[in-house]
Specification:
The chain has 11 helices and 6 strands. By secondary structure, the protein is an alpha/beta fold. The chain has a 4-stranded parallel β-sheet with strand order 2-4-5-6, sandwiched between helices. A two-stranded antiparallel ribbon has the order 1-3. Helix 8 links the parallel strand 4 and strand 5. The structure holds ligand JS2. GO terms for molecular function: NAD+ nucleosidase activity, cyclic ADP-ribose generating; phosphorus-oxygen lyase activity; transferase activity. Belongs to the ADP-ribosyl cyclase family.
Length: 298
């Protein structure tokens, strides 16, 4: 078979040339497509999970000792090792999407701390300012100023049925397919206990620079308000704070506060509301002394 090649007339190319082009294109595209698929896969997985806090057990134990040995020595008899084991037993080796309130009951029963009457400060969408305020008004307690809130603040944790270890890498995000995560159930349980143990006049710091300062969907609006005991709590004071230089989207005259007032009054608890409660405004103004809404205070 003479091996002669036709010189290609303009336009039609020999098959081998085309197959080479195809191979080159495939050679280039396939890895790109594969990389894209892997990247999307990782992204979706990342979206369904979030980083668990590294060394949660060590952090919880350390915070417990710091809190009970030098911040609140009156609690020095609390057994921090037992608190840690009781905390982790609530979620290790369990389905991280089906943790129950009962799982945390042994921890709630173990840690006994009473907040003095008239010293409970709730917050909603104003965590930083509430903590700055209670950091100055040291007799006031947010949940994170109590032992259980302090040991877990800003941590993420979960377990896994396949291991008795506390997960170090990723934990499932709380969403419709995974509604009862170890972290979210913990905050619901300790928020409920924090509200149940409140007495006298209690306070809530709300954010009037958000569309609705009060939301029934929030932990404060769905758990804490409904676990205040009217025979122990006679008054709720709301402070609607606005960001310095921020927009005033809601206030004590707003519809969301009217809703809060009616819920609280229906529970036979008196309700008062102040916009930009002055002492908390002072705390905000420490960081913005030049702002006109602060210079008037000086
Ligand atoms: C703290 C966390 C975390 O009154 C406050 C506190 O007592 C708190 O437990 O619940 C109230 C705030 O929750 P709310 O009203 O839903 O306000 P938010 O600004 O939307 O806060 C959402 C987070 C509340 C529960 N929570 N609290 N430290 O690390 C933490 N993680 C979660 N999920």
């Amino acid at each position: 078979m003479p091996d002669y090649e036709f010189s290609p007339a303009s336009g039609d190319r020999p098959r081998s040339w085309i197959s080479k082009q195809v191979l080159i294109v495939l050679g280039v595209c396939l890895p790109v497509i594969l990389a894209l698929a892997i990247w999307v896969g990782v992204l979706t997985w990342r979206q369904s999970s979030m980083g668990a806090t590294d060394h949660v057990s060590a952090i919880v134990l350390g915070r417990c000792l710091t809190y009970t040995r030098n911040m609140h020595p009156e609690l020095r008899n609390q057994d921090c090792k037992k608190i840690l084991n009781t905390f982790t037993s609530a979620f290790v080796s369990k389905d991280p999407c089906n943790i129950t309130k009962e799982d945390y009951q042994p921890l709630i029963d173990l840690v006994t701390q009473t907040v003095p009457c008239n010293k409970t400060l709730f917050w909603s969408r104003s965590k930083e300012l509430a903590h700055q305020y209670s950091g100055i008004q040291k007799e006031m307690f947010t949940l994170e100023d109590t032992l259980l809130g302090y040991i877990a603040d800003n941590l993420v944790w979960c377990g896994d049925p396949r291991t008795s270890e506390v997960k170090e890498e990723f934990c499932p995000y709380r969403n419709e397919n995974c509604s009862s995560t170890a972290t979210s159930v913990f905050w619901t349980v300790v928020s409920q206990k924090f509200a149940e143990s409140a007495c006298g006049t209690v306070y809530v710091m709300l954010n009037g620079s958000r569309t609705t300062a009060f939301s029934k969907a929030s932990t404060f609006g769905s758990v804490e308000v409904f676990n205040l005991h009217p025979d122990r709590v006679h008054t709720l004071h709301a402070w609607v704070m606005h960001d310095i230089g921020g927009v005033e989207r809601d206030s004590c005259l707003g519809s969301s506060i009217k809703e809060l007032k009616s819920i609280v009054n229906q529970r036979n608890i008196s309700f008062f509301c102040q916009d930009d409660y002055r002492p908390a405004r002072f705390v905000q103004c420490v960081r913005h002394p030049e702002h006109p809404s602060c210079s008037v205070l000086m």
